[in-house]
Amino acid sequence: MRDLRLLTDNSGAIFTAEAVLASLLLISAVACLELTQPVPASDAEDLGVLAGDLLSILEHRDNSQLHPGLAAALSSPDAWEGQSGTLEADIRSMMPAGVRCYMTTPYGTRGDCPPESAEMAVRPFQAYSRDSGSIIECSLILWRG
Amino acid sequence: MRNDSNGQMILLSALAACICLLTLVAILSSVRQTAPDNIETLTGDVFENVLWAQDQGLGQTGLLPYERPADQRAQTIIDFKRNIAKVTESLADNMLSRGIAYRFSLNESLASGFAAESSGEYESASGVIYREENGSVKICGCGYDVLLKDGSVTYELSRMEAWA
User: Fold this and answer.
1) What is this structure's pTM?
2) What is the pLDDT, as a whole number, of residue B28?
3) Which of B1, B5, B8, B11 best probes binding to A when mutated, by most A CB atoms within 10 angstroms?
4) A2: buried, middle or exposed (CB in 10 Å: 19+, 13-18, 0-12)?
5) How far is B164 from chain A (nearest CA, A)?
6) Are B60 and A128 inside 8 Å of each other by CB?
7) Do the beta carbons of residue A144 and residue A49 sit within 8 Å?
8) Coil, helix or strand for B18?
9) Which pLDDT belongs to residue A42?
10) What is the β-pairing status of strands B123-125 and A120-129?
11) How many CB atoms lie within 10 A of CB B14?
């Protein structure tokens, strides 16, 4: 009778150890699930937000000689030729350190062309060309370098 | 002996369950990693930019010197509509290349309501607002409906755009 009780107690300890081990395995599986949660916003996403804000400012601010608006600069090839340099300098002055810009339009490009390996945000946008009387597609690319 | 066997069965079951869970996690992770994350979707920013470009086009087209006498107002409005078709068709082509449908139409009821509230200063026809100035017709605005749709998101807007 006494031996049988001892045997039963040992079995209980083994069961407990096995249950603990099983729990640890399950917890590790749950931890793996937690690790696959979405990561915080990446650098490219930050650049995308910056590009959107920059574009919004350029679209809606007043047009002046020192700060040309996007509509005026993209209205014709001549306007682009005359104002894109000032526009580029203006964009550079609004960007944080280390961020570079590159703008592509049907009239030509401006800024620093990003290397293929660079992390970048490409923001396509539409603009009206008074010269052709139609809408042209352009893009603003921000990248770190 | 029998109790030991039960314990091993529990341990084996737990191991099997963990393997299944880890496999599921691996599959979910691989699906997430292979999902394209750089496809641009139709956002409020895109819609705002399209409206900005479109309204620039409408305004500049409306300010063109049509120089037709007042009795040829119908022809002036036809000319204006032909010119804005160039703007909206090029915009539709550009958006289509990005997988976004763009639709524009003039809204007669908005334009006639605007004209009715102007106490006779403006008149409307086919969604276009105009007024007579120095014996000729001047295009002053239009009412329109615009729709952008990319399959999952839709933006719609009806409004008056007046520039003069």
Assistant:
1) 0.74
2) 77
3) B11
4) exposed
5) 18
6) yes
7) no
8) helix
9) 62
10) unpaired
11) 19
